Amino acid sequence: METAGMILVLVLAIALIIFLTVRIKVHAFVALLTACFFIGFFTGMPLDKILKSIETGIGGFLGMLAPILALGAIVGKMMEISGGAERLARTMIRVLGKRNTHWALMIVGYICGIPVFFQVGIVLLMPLLFCVAIEAGMSLVMIGVPMIIGLLTVHCMVPPHPAATAVAVGLNADIGKVILYGLIVGFPAAAIAGPVFGKMVGNKFTLNPPKHLCKTEPTPEAELPTFGITLLTILFPLILMISKTLLEFFLGKAHPAMIYINFIGSPITALFLAVLLSYWTLGVNRGMSMQQLQKFSEVAIGPMAAILLVIGASGAFNQILMDSGIGNAIKSVLMAWHINPLILAWCVAAVMRFAVGGATIAMITAVGLVTPVLATYPGLDPALVAVAIGAGAIGFSHVNDPGFWFVKEYFGMQMGDLFKTYTLSTTIASVVGLISLLLFSLVIS
Q: Which residues cross the membrane (predicted)?
């Protein structure tokens, strides 16, 4: 099949995914598998090769991701049930002062968003938002937007979040580098789209959240973990993974100690040790029984099944793009445009985010579209590409994004106001993230 025909099949496959997920409301797992079969049939792949590509793609993506996501979910759950978020907020407000509460809530969202999913972070932090707003005398929008953007930025850019981790694995990027680069690049994006933008619009809009969320009484101090223990537990796996990357840079890959450093700093080991640490610091040490911890772990792991299925199907979609020959067609077309590969990765993720809605499926689909081009840039660090995809997926959230409706429910805003606050702030964060990444890439090159 000619290049034009291959690209037409790809466009129709993407349109099929959008139609099935947005209009027909088919689950993303089924929609992605449908697209896989569509591509296989219309590019003339042998039937046995179609099945082999799907099996290889799913297995290749999930082999490493499954334990990482399960372990990360447990750490997030331990932080959720321990009151760690409220402890972080109180300490940050005390350090920065009430006048800078909007900055404090952005930082809290940025830190708390590392181990917990975006939606879980909203559920966790929204009741706290009212305590803080009343105490500081600030608009809920002024401090709510920074908190939400802090959560969303790390959700898209920083492992061990599912999509960010899947992108890193799909691109064969060093996860420690992706974490480090994502945290560095994401902070200015969250700062400008959060506190700076939030202060500009804070007094122009109002929130009308559900009454049951309007918590006005803070949790007693004695019931909260200490700030140091909470921060250490959240950052512990990141410290191990980033340290492995830094030590490899200074010692070299051939150093004898790297055998042990690579083992301890691998995502699976780092998160396994973080789970054990969280069981003690946020669980047993605070009076919880092992039976309670077992129950919390089961609750945390359960929702991973649906996410893993979507990621696995996305892996199959990426694999069948390569095996069908569409990958080479994408490469020839995109190379003719002579676009900076980081800008290209950002654009692909942003377009998919706008079209499909969910950040996870947008990011993982973007990997399959960008990977064929990366072979022509052998000196490009794939960790930078991973962050570019994450930055692109932050923005342009609107009515086809499940997260958009989740925020609407908790913020209680009119649709038009939500576009002017949440959608606009996500887009600002996405654009600033790209600019920050391009500048950062110049500094480290």
A: 6-22, 29-47, 59-82, 103-130, 136-158, 178-197, 227-247, 259-280, 300-321, 342-370, 382-400, 421-444
Q: Which domain holds residue 172?
A: 3-444
Largest CA distance in the chain: 69
Mean pLDDT on 22-35: 87
**Cis geometry, peptide bond prior to residue 160 (ω within 30 degrees of 0):** yes
Mean pLDDT of 255-260: 94
DSSP 327-370: HHHHHHHHHHHT--HHHHHHHHHHHHHHHH--HHHHHHHHHHHH
Question: What is the chain's length?
Answer: 445
Provide the whole-model pTM. Answer: 0.85
Q: Is 86 exposed, middle or buried (0-12, 13-18, 19+ CB in 10 A)?
A: buried
At 190, the amino acid letter reads: A
Query: 338-355: per-residue pLDDT in tens?
Result: 789 999 999 999 988 888
Q: Pick the residue with more confidence: 402 or 266?
A: 266
Query: What is the C-alpha separation between 310 and 37, in angstroms, rounded?
Result: 16
Q: How many CB atoms lie within 10 A of CB 62?
A: 18
How many domains does one find in the chain? 1
SS3 per residue for 56-108: HHHHHHHHHHHHHHHHHHHHHHHHHHHCHHHHHHHHHHHHHCHHHHHHHHHHH
